[in-house]
Amino acid sequence: MNASEQATNLELASKIATVVNLFKFEFPDAKSDLKPWKNDPETRELVDPDSIDIGFHFPGISKSWRSRSVLIQIRFYQDPINNSRRAIGVEVAGFDHRGEAWRLSTVENWSVVGASSPSSEIGDKLKQICRQILEVFNN
User: Which domain of life is it from (predicted)?
Assistant: First the structure.
């Protein structure tokens, strides 16, 4: 779900801002997008209500990124027993003019997969950002 829609209180808004700042600290050329999903019926069917989704766009295609846009999806789990909500994983996907070029998931083995992958330096920075995102939402 769009980050702008998930920022329902000061704590969540602050954590979303922290994620944006973590990404922009490492990649200052990126422009953040708190509404990466269109608001139409077809898109609404695909959107996960248990995620916070933030897009980042670059001024052009970078050889080190192998993409022009990045979507970060922070996935959550609501525990029905103690009613706590925690981040259970982060999905990062890079997109170019053809669509999704690569994906990184913290749910499985933290590896980047896809038709074209970002450089290992970018991949390492993304993994570090994912660790920090999980800390922000679970501490």
Answer: Bacteria
CA atoms of 120 and 15, how far apart (whole Å): 27
Per-residue pLDDT of the chain (139 residues; tens, 9 = 90+): 677 777 778 999 999 999 999 999 999 999 999 988 766 566 556 667 788 999 999 997 777 888 999 999 999 998 888 888 899 999 999 998 888 999 999 988 899 999 889 999 999 999 999 999 999 999 8
**How far apart (Å, rounded) are the C-alpha atoms in residues 9 and 94?**
29
Count the Cβ atoms, other than its own, within 10 Å of residue 97. Answer: 8
β pairing state of 99-105 and 85-96:
antiparallel
Closest CA to 137 of 4, 22, 5, 2: 22
